Amino acid sequence: MRLLQRVVETPHPCTYLPAQRASLDVRLMLDVTPLELDALLSRGWRRFGPCYFRPQCAACKACVTTRVIASQFAPTRSQRRAVRLAAGLRRVVGVPTVDDARLRLYSRWHASREGARGWEESEMDAERYRMDFAFPHPCAREVAYYDGDRLVGLGLIDQTPTALSAAYFFYEPQQQGSLGVANVVHLVQDARNWGLRHMYLGYRVQGCASLEYKGAFRPHEVLVGRPAMNEGPEWRTA
């Protein structure tokens, strides 16, 4: 991997827990191999385009890296119901791309979050989408859900030699059911079917409505601390 730039953010108000101060360790890197991304994920790093990041907050440890054990996962009743409600949709796994349908879907979804949860506005044009969600990487995949020919859900994931990693998911606000939940169940099942050990869910944050749901996918493991690349990561079953 080639490190082009590293920035540790000055502490600022946290978007997840407003009473806390947040800081990210952000690294701009190219030529990250699937095995290197695997090692980064196992140490709590996440990826958007060429940017890799991990919390560096001094006083708060609320962001807990979480991964589901694919071979042991057993969906709950509500999770099975979400899958049934999504059964009529066509699901396509492919290489991330950008087009008007994806940009419009993101815009509608984010606007609904701004109204319902007070999120800040997020302008998404084709250039930014291509950089964040469709940047060329050997591990990058997208999972698209269609109702007929209409795009109603889009997930961005990474596939490494041992795991899947869910990076982002957005969907049609008027879509019936819990498509986000169904997408996670599908991804864990994909990981198991493809012989992968884990499905990374990113950060679970107690007290943040947008991220607490991740704790419902069990059994799962949580990362202890913020290990360096030359340290072996310690994971505990939660």
Q: Which structural class is indicated by helix and strand composition? A: alpha+beta
Overall residue-averaged pLDDT value: 94
* Count of individual beta strands: 14
> How many structurally independent domains?
1
Residue share in helices?
10-25%
Q: Fill in the CATH topology.
A: Aminopeptidase
Please identify, by name, the CATH architecture: 3-Layer(aba) Sandwich
| Strand arrangement across the biggest beta sheet | 8-9-10-11-12-7-13-14
Task: For the record, give the distance between the C-alpha atoms at the N and C termini, rounded to a whole number.
Answer: 32 Å
Report the top-level CATH class: Alpha Beta
pLDDT below 50 for ≥5 consecutive residues: which ranges?
none
Computed CA radius of gyration, to the nearest angstrom: 17 Å
As a percent range, the share of strand residues is 25-35%
| Number of helices, counting only DSSP H or I runs of 4 residues or more | 5
Reading the helices and strands in chain order gives: EEEEHEEEHEHHEEEHEEE
Q: Report the major sheet.
A: 8 strands, mixed
CATH superfamily: Gcn5-related N-acetyltransferase (GNAT)
Q: Tell me, briefly, the overall form.
A: globular
